[in-house]
């Protein structure tokens, strides 16, 4: 298999091309080519999106400046940021693509190129890619994290995104944050979804099976809750699509919402599934639609043979070209297409003589100023948002600096959340989960309730206040750091470090668990003692439900009282042994 990786770097804008808006910023400038003109190749086109986190409208989204890879992952995609990423993929600095894929000169470039994503703009792009190739030869696959992440998804329990996905024409999806609604809500949403919901790694528990919960089991013999795979005949080829839901759902999210289902990677069962499909379904290609996270997908591609392509999600890595993984069965292409509706992946396959002969891949940034919004999707989004507009548009405070989340250790919006928890709940220390979803607010923008909801809107938003010993705090940090930096990908869950407020610490990512975190120090310079108790406030408890106010109300109260969205101090750790790691930008961005 060959790959025209560098053709992606030649993307240029074209104001005035079909579907392009002649407005302001980047769209008002003249360029020599259309960035959304994709040459047709092969006989099967797979369009891929994932991790939109219910962002129906265009947004700003800053890529990380820290995405450290440990062990064999160091220096490899997805653990490349800034100029290291640009150099690796041959992307021209200070270009549209450089802005799309890196954090460099973010605010200046965001002012030039505008917002990204938006389902009405994605719809225009998807329709163009379908029509230019042939609708009968094209499938749209959604990797999940679609029903959660906004105020409207919270209020409608994800049904807003089911409607949007139906309008977009999603053919197949799998899930993760979809499972943070209650079982009956999930099943109701899947029933309303026009496509197929696939998950080969979600099974019914023995207790639920014994109690007669078979009305929603896909296969009582295998125990699959959902359909594990689908066979599609397109472009003269017969392809299998296997769903791989997030395997750590009942660890990373509340198990109480989905008590009857069990999750894991189950790569041995996946291998059996691939072998069965190859042996009895007479397929020409096998595709896995995954929500493992890219590091886990790369490891799984090495261990499971017979898969041609893994279209992955969960870790929000926008990777311009597939990683080719060799295994006992040949080669597997591993792709990841970022988050928040910022990218659409285009995988064109040449499938002949019973197998994939070749491919071409493009990861297209969705710049909303370059794509006219689809009229029907625009109306649907307006209808969805209308009942909640007074809540969503409430103005809280102007941002006096860039407010972002994504990064291994902390972001400015994360710090606002931590500061709000400390201030409103009168706590000395605060903890906030290292979620990778959340949009960016530019300096000077008014922070609205919708922006706060973009960072906090989940189905278990309650806050807490309790006493914790210093030893407990260290244990929490060590546990999350091991999830992030363990060199064994199967022991990672794909998030970032827990965000902290009120103290700093030293982190050595190359160390082993129990030895990565040291020198925990309060903002006043006092060392945190193992046996001393501290008043701590946090939110999003995975176990029992907390009793405090919802986090978005806490943050809103704090911002309205402060009258400006700003931070006095960014509580981020001092790092050891990362000087030569290409997963960290070593100069101001």
Which descriptors would you attach to this protein?
17 helices; 27% helix; disordered N terminus; six-stranded mixed β-sheet; 589 residues; alpha/beta
Describe the strand arrangement of the main beta sheet, using strand numbers: 4-3-2-1-13-14
Structural class, by secondary structure, is alpha/beta
Shape: globular
Note poorly predicted spans. 1-32
Quick structural summary:
The protein contains 17 helices and 23 strands.
General description of the model:
The chain is built from 17 helices and 23 strands. The strands form six sheets. The protein has a six-stranded mixed sheet with strand order 4-3-2-1-13-14, with helices on one face. A six-stranded mixed sheet has the order 6-7-9-10-12-11, covered by helices on one side. It has a four-stranded mixed sheet with strand order 18-22-16-19. The two termini are 37 Å apart. It has helices spanning 82-89, 96-101, 106-113, 119-133, 151-156, 159-168, 183-192, 206-210, 249-252, 267-280, 294-303, 375-385, 389-392, 412-424, 449-456, 470-485, 551-562; strands at residues 44-49, 138-142, 172-173, 196-197, 202-204, 229-234, 237-244, 261-263, 285-290, 309-312, 323-327, 330-336, 343-352, 355-365, 395-398, 429-432, 446-448, 463-469, 499-501, 503-507, 517-522, 533-539, 574-575. It has 589 residues and is of the alpha/beta class.
Fold topology:
Elements: E1 44-49, H1 82-89, H2 96-101, H3 106-113, H4 119-133, E2 138-142, H5 151-156, H6 159-168, E3 172-173, H7 183-192, E4 196-197, E5 202-204, H8 206-210, E6 229-234, E7 237-244, H9 249-252, E8 261-263, H10 267-280, E9 285-290, H11 294-303, E10 309-312, E11 323-327, E12 330-336, E13 343-352, E14 355-365, H12 375-385, H13 389-392, E15 395-398, H14 412-424, E16 429-432, E17 446-448, H15 449-456, E18 463-469, H16 470-485, E19 499-501, E20 503-507, E21 517-522, E22 533-539, H17 551-562, E23 574-575
Parallel strand pairs: 1-2, 2-3, 3-4, 7-9, 9-10, 10-12, 16-22, 20-23
Antiparallel strand pairs: 1-13, 5-8, 6-7, 11-12, 13-14, 15-17, 16-19, 18-22, 20-21
Helix pairs in contact: 6-12, 14-17, 15-17
């Amino acid at each position: 298999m060959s790959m025209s990786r560098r053709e992606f770097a030649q993307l240029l804008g074209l104001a005035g091309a079909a579907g392009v808006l002649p407005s302001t910023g980047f769209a008002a400038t003249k360029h020599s080519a259309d960035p959304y003109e994709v040459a047709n190749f092969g006989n099967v086109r797979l369009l891929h999106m994932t991790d939109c986190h219910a962002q129906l409208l265009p947004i700003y989204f800053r890529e990380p400046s820290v995405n450290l890879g440990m062990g064999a992952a160091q220096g490899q995609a997805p653990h490349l940021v800034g100029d290291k990423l640009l150099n690796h993929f041959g992307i021209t600095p200070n270009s549209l693509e450089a802005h799309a894929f890196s954090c460099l000169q973010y605010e200046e470039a965001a002012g030039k190129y505008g917002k990204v994503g938006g389902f009405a703009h994605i719809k225009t792009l998807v329709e163009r890619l379908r029509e230019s190739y042939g609708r009968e030869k094209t499938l749209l696959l959604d990797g999940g994290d679609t029903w959660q992440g906004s105020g409207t998804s919270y209020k409608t329990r994800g049904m807003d995104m089911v409607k949007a996905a139906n309008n977009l024409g999603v053919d197949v999806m799998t899930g993760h944050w979809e499972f943070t609604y209650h079982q009956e809500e999930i099943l109701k949403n899947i029933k309303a979804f026009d496509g197929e919901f696939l998950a080969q790694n979600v099974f019914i528990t023995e207790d639920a099976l014994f109690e007669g919960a078979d009305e929603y089991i896909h296969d009582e013999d295998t125990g699959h809750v959902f359909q594990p795979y689908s066979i599609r005949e397109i472009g003269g080829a017969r392809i299998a699509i296997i769903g791989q839901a997030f395997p750590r759902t009942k660890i990373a999210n509340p198990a109480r919402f989905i008590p009857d289902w069990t999750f894991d990677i189950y790569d041995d069962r996946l291998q059996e599934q691939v072998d069965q499909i190859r042996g009895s379904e007479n397929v020409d290609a096998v595709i896995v639609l995954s929500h493992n996270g890219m590091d886990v997908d790369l490891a799984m591609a090495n261990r499971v043979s017979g898969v041609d392509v893994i279209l992955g999600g969960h870790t929000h890595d926008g990777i311009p070209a597939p990683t080719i993984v060799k295994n006992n069965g040949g080669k597997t292409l591993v792709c990841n297409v970022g988050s928040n509706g910022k990218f659409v992946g285009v995988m064109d396959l040449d499938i002949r003589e019973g197998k994939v002969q070749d491919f071409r891949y493009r990861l297209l940034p969705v710049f909303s100023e370059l794509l006219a919004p689809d009229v029907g999707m625009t109306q649907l989004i307006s209808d969805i948002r209308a009942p909640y507009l007074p809540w969503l548009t409430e103005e809280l405070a102007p941002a006096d600096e860039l407010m972002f989340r994504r990064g291994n250790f902390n972001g400015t919006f994360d710090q606002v959340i931590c500061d709000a928890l400390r201030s409103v709940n009168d706590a000395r220390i605060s903890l906030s989960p290292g979620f990778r979803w959340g949009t960016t607010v530019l300096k000077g923008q008014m922070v609205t309730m919708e922006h706060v909801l973009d960072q906090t809107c989940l189905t278990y938003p309650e806050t807490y206040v309790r006493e914790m010993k210093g030893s407990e705090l260290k244990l929490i940090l060590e546990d999350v750091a091991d999830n992030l930096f363990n060199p064994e990908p199967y022991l990672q869950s794909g998030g970032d470090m827990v965000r902290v407020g009120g103290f700093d610490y030293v982190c050595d990512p190359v160390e082993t668990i129990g030895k990565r975190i040291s020198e925990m120090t309060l903002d006043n310079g006092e060392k945190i003692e193992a046996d001393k108790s501290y008043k701590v406030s946090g939110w999003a408890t995975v176990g029992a439900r907390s009793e405090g106010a919802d986090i978005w109300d806490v943050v809103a109260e704090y911002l309205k009282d402060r009258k400006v969205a700003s931070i006095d101090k960014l509580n981020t750790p001092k790092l050891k042994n990362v000087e030569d790691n290409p997963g960290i930008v070593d100069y101001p961005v």
